[in-house]
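In the current project phase, the collection of sequences with tokenised folds has grown. A representative record is quoted in full directly below:
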Amino acid sequence: MAEDDSSQEKTEEATPRRLEKAREEGDVPRSRELSTFAVLMAGSVGLWVFGDRITESVINVMKDNLSVERAALYDTNQMAIHLASAAHEVVWALVPLMGLLAVAAIIGPLGLGGWNFAGKALMPKGSRINPISGLKRMFSMRSLVELVKGILKVSLVGGLAVLIIDWLEPEIMFLPMESMESALAHSVSIILWSAIALSASTLIIAVIDVPYQLYEHAKKLKMSMQDIKDEFKETEGKPEVKRKVRQLQMEMAQRRMMGDVPDADVIITNPTHYSVALKYDPGRASAPIMLAKGADQVAFKIREIGQEYDIPILEAPPLARSIYYNTEIGDEIPEGLYIAVAQVLAYVFQLDQYMAGRGPKPQNPKDFPIPDDLQHE
């Protein structure tokens, strides 16, 4: 029982298959703090780059709308023209900044987890609207961590904002005494550097949050030994299924092999155990090639096919064993057996001549030179 309990403890790191499956379901590590930092920094950089253009546009809008002739105030057409002109000026001033923010909002999350489009994540799940599941999420450890992060974030950013306002208070109080153009430019400068400082403060939270999210994601995907065993069975297949597949593969290979036997030039046998079918085509190979081999019932089937197609069958037990154990189907025979097989092929040629009435009956060869390292008992 203790062994069963230990096998259910999730102590093992997630396997590559488990990580791949989680990614397919949209379960990748994400850090909202990293995304927030990316958007805020992009906004700050945008203000720094496009601040002059935005300031100039605001000044132009204020000039056009605060210096209106008296007659134009009573002309609705003129008011519509002023409104359209102001909207056009503001939109074209803010488009670059908005575009930069949009890019940051898309790229920011990619800093952790990368691109991942998972259709399964879009599918409706009952657990998302289940009140009990919702309560469990509200009072979970993750929710507590998010609450602590929120409090720290507000405290950090709020505290820094108070320090910035206190530091810039003299400049802020002096703004009403400046000209309109100077005050606007000065205000933009104050907003810019304040935004940069506040954005930089969120980096501290992101640096803490990213390792935590990686840790939580790895912890959530941990597996027990039983999970790994089940995954292995699912991936590799059950043993009985694998045995059946191997059996079918062997049967298919055997059928293909038997289909090549009629092309053989000679079949060499050990009458009770082994049979090998050889073919020699000087135009395609430098040595005879084994077309088929088998033991016991397979050997008997090879001899049976040979008899059906009138293929010469030669009993040579040592040579048959040697070829059987040292040659794979489709390969050339070993160099050490060239002389012995040449004697067999010469016998087959002489036998063909005899059957055609063009020569004496050849003697069945008995002794074959087989090197010691190729002999098999």
